[in-house]
Design goal:
Layout lengths: L2 H26 L10 H16 L2 E6 L6 H9 L4 E2 L10 E4 L5 E5 L2 H7 L6 H14 L2 E6 L10 H10 L6 E5 L11 H24 L3 H6 L1 E4 L9 H5 L2 H8 L1 H15 L2 H79 L6 H9 L4 H41 L3 H10 L4 H12 L9 H4 L7 H13 L8 H4 L5 H27 L1 H6 L4 H40 L1
Helix pairs in contact: 1-2, 1-11, 1-12, 1-22, 2-12, 4-5, 12-14, 12-20, 12-22, 13-14, 14-16, 16-22, 18-20
Length: 563
C-alpha cells in the first residue's frame, strides 16, 4: 500500500468514526427533555468532517539546494513533478506541482541556505515562514548529502526543528544520491555503506547535537536512495520501473512514509480532537446532570403512575355504580309515571282534586321533588366518589409537579417539554376544586328537561283543559254542577299524554348512555384525563428507556476512544 493510499484510508476511517458519532448525536436530539443539547456538538462535528474531507497529505522537504529533492519527490510519487518556483537558488518556500489534489509538497531550501550563504541576519524571519509549513506537515523529508549527512553548523536549526517544534516523530532522514558512495545494485555493498552512514555518522551526529534518547534512537527513520541512478533521467526510469526500484531503493522511502502516516497521520488527531471535545461536553458535562434528573423523575413518574392506576380502578367501580344507578332510575321512572298514569285514569271529578294535591302538587312541586330525590338517592354516592377522585388526582398531579420543580431549572424545563402536566388536567383539577365542586352532580331540572316543573305545562296545559270549563282547584266544589263526563275524560287524557311525554323524555335521557353520563359532569373529563396522563407517562417511560440505551452507547464510544 502506498503512502497516498494509506492516507486516503485514514481519511475514510476518520469520516466513518465521525459518522458514527454523528448518528449518536442525532439520536440525542430526542432527549432534549432531559436537558441534552447537541446542536453545538453537531456543528463542531461537521467542521471536523469538513476538515478531514479537505485535508491533503502534506510533505515538506528540508535540505540544501543541490541534494536532489525534486528527483526524490518525483521518484516517491512515481511521476515527474516540478517546482512552481523552479529556481534552485530561491530562498523562499517552494511548492511542487504534483498534479494531485490530495497531496501538497513543499521545499524549504532557505532554512539552511541563509547560513550557507552568510545571510544569518534573515534567518529568524525565514524561520517564521518555515515554521507554518513544517508544523502542519504530515511527513518531513530531511534530505542529506551522502558524504557529510549531518553538519555541525546546523545544530541550532536541528534543535529548533526537533526539540522546539518536536518534529522528530514525523521526520525521515533521507541519504540522497547514495549511488555516489555505494553500488546500488549490490545489496551487500549497499547494506554495508548504509549501516555505516546510519550507525556511525547520522545517529552519533544527531546524538551529539540534539541528545537523542534510547527510544528516539530506536525509532529513528533513515533511508538511502538514488532518485536518478546513473543520471539517466526520471523519464527513462519511469519506463523501467522494475530496474528502477532495485537501483533506487525508493521502496524504502515509500515504506517509511507509509509507516509515519500510520503512526502520525494527523487525521487521527483531528478525529480524536473532535471526539474528545464533543464527548467531553455531552458525556462528561451534560450526561451526569441528565442522568441524575432522569433517575429522580423516573421515581416520581412511577409513583404518579401507580396513583393513576389506582384512580382508574376507582373509576371502574364508579362506572359500575353509574350503571346500577341507570338501571334503578330507569325502573323508577317507568314504575312511578305508570303508577301516576294509572291513578289519574282512575280518578273521578270527586277524587281528581285530591290526586292533584297529593301526587302532583302546586305547579308540580311534589312530583318534581319526588323525581329529584330519587335521582339524588341513586347518584349521591357516585358524585361523592367523583369529588374524592378529582381531589386525589389534583393532589397527585400537584405533588408530582412540585417534586419535579424542586430539581431546579432542568426540572422546570422537563415539565414544559414533557406535556405530562397540561391544560386539560390542570383545568379539570384546579377549576373544579376552585368552585368547590358544585358543578359536579345531577340537576334534574336542567339535565333531564324536567322543568321546575314541566307542570308549568300542567298549569297552562292540562289544567287549562279543565279550566276551559271554568275550573280551578279552589273552585272545584262549584264545578259539580257543570259536570260533563265527556269533557272531563278529555282533560284526563291530556294529562296522561303529558305524563307519558315526560316519562319518555326521562327514559330517553336515561337510556342514552352519553346523555346519562353527562349527568355526572366530572366523570368523562376525569376519565379522559387519567387515560391521557397514563399514556403520557408510558410515552415518557419509553423515552426514559431509550435515553438509558443512548447513555450506554455514549459510554461505549468513550471507552473505544480511551482504548
Amino acid at each position: 500500500m502506498t503512502t497516498q493510499q494509506e492516507f486516503k484510508n485514514q481519511k475514510e476511517q476518520g469520516q466513518a468514526v465521525l459518522e458514527k458519532l454523528q448518528g449518536f448525536l442525532e439520536q440525542g436530539k430526542d432527549f432534549e427533555l432531559f436537558g441534552i443539547s447537541v446542536d453545538d456538538s453537531l456543528e463542531k462535528l461537521q467542521k471536523a468532517k469538513d476538515k478531514i474531507n479537505q485535508r491533503k497529505l502534506k510533505v515538506v522537504f528540508i535540505g540544501g539546494f543541490s541534494e536532489g529533492k525534486t528527483s526524490i519527490a518525483s521518484a516517491w510519487l512515481g511521476k515527474v513533478v516540478g517546482k512552481i518556483d523552479s529556481a534552485e537558488s530561491s530562498d523562499e518556500v517552494a511548492f511542487y506541482d504534483t498534479k494531485d489534489d490530495e497531496i501538497e509538497i513543499f521545499d524549504t531550501p532557505g532554512l539552511f541556505g541563509f547560513k550557507e550563504k552568510g545571510q544569518g541576519v534573515n534567518a529568524e524571519k525565514y524561520k517564521d515562514i518555515t515554521k507554518k509549513f513544517v508544523s502542519e506537515a504530515d511527513i518531513i523529508l530531511y534530505v542529506m548529502n551522502p558524504t557529510n549527512p549531518i553538519k555541525a553548523s546546523h545544530k541550532e536549526d536541528l534543535e529548533w526543528l526537533f526539540r522546539t517544534l518536536n518534529l522528530l516523530p514525523r521526520t525521515i532522514f533521507v541519504l540522497s544520491k547514495f549511488d555516489e558512495v555505494a553500488d546500488m545494485g549490490d545489496d551487500d555493498d549497499f547494506e554495508s555503506e548504509f549501516a555505516t552512514k546510519k550507525d556511525k555518522s547520522i545517529i552519533p551526529s544527531l546524538n551529539e547535537l540534539i541528545k537523542l534518547n534510547a527510544n528516539e534512537k530506536a525509532q529513528l527513520k533513515v533511508v538511502a536512495v538514488s532518485a536518478n541512478p546513473e543520471g539517466k533521467g526520471l523519464d527513462f526510469w519511469l519506463e523501467n520501473q522494475s530496474e528502477f526500484k532495485k537501483l533506487s531503493h525508493i521502496d524504502s522511502l515509500q515504506n517509511a512514509t507509509t509507516e509515519i502516516i500510520k503512526q502520525n497521520g494527523g487525521l487521527e488527531s483531528i478525529t480524536l480532537e473532535a471526539q474528545n471535545s464533543i464527548l467531553s461536553d455531552i458525556v462528561s458535562k451534560q450526561l451526569p446532570q441528565a442522568i441524575t434528573l432522569q433517575n429522580k423523575i423516573k421515581g416520581d413518574m412511577q409513583r404518579l403512575n401507580e396513583s393513576i392506576k389506582a384512580l382508574r380502578k376507582d373509576m371502574e367501580r364508579t362506572n359500575d355504580k353509574i350503571n346500577d344507578a341507570q338501571i334503578a332510575l330507569r325502573e323508577f321512572v317507568a314504575r312511578y309515571f305508570n303508577d301516576l298514569i294509572r291513578q289519574i285514569k282512575g280518578t273521578s271529578l270527586e277524587t281528581f282534586g285530591d290526586f292533584m294535591q297529593k301526587e302532583i302538587g302546586s305547579e308540580g312541586s311534589l312530583m318534581s321533588a319526588r323525581v329529584q330525590n330519587e335521582f339524588q338517592r341513586h347518584t349521591h354516592s357516585v358524585i361523592n366518589e367523583l369529588k374524592t377522585s378529582i381531589e386525589r388526582f389534583d393532589k397527585e398531579r400537584d405533588d408530582f409537579e412540585k417534586a419535579v420543580i424542586s430539581y431546579g431549572k432542568q426540572g422546570v424545563e422537563w415539565l414544559q417539554k414533557s406535556g405530562v402536566i397540561n391544560n386539560k388536567n390542570v383545568i379539570l383539577g384546579r377549576d373544579l376544586l376552585k368552585t368547590g365542586l358544585e358543578k359536579i352532580g345531577v340537576n334534574v331540572g336542567t339535565a333531564l328537561n324536567f322543568k321546575p316543573w314541566g307542570a308549568v305545562k300542567f298549569a297552562n296545559g292540562a289544567l287549562a283543559a279543565v279550566a276551559f270549563f271554568g275550573l280551578t282547584l279552589e273552585m272545584w266544589d262549584s264545578y259539580r254542577q257543570y259536570e260533563k263526563e265527556q269533557k272531563f275524560q278529555e282533560a284526563k287524557a291530556k294529562i296522561v299524554e303529558m305524563l307519558e311525554n315526560q316519562m319518555n323524555e326521562l327514559l330517553n335521557t336515561i337510556n342514552d348512555t352519553k346523555k346519562f353520563y353527562a349527568l355526572f359532569s366530572g366523570y368523562e373529563p376525569l376519565k379522559n384525563a387519567l387515560e391521557d396522563t397514563q399514556k403520557d407517562l408510558q410515552t415518557l417511560e419509553s423515552a426514559s428507556a431509550e435515553f438509558e440505551k443512548w447513555v450506554e452507547q455514549g459510554e461505549i464510544i468513550e471507552a473505544e476512544i480511551v482504548e
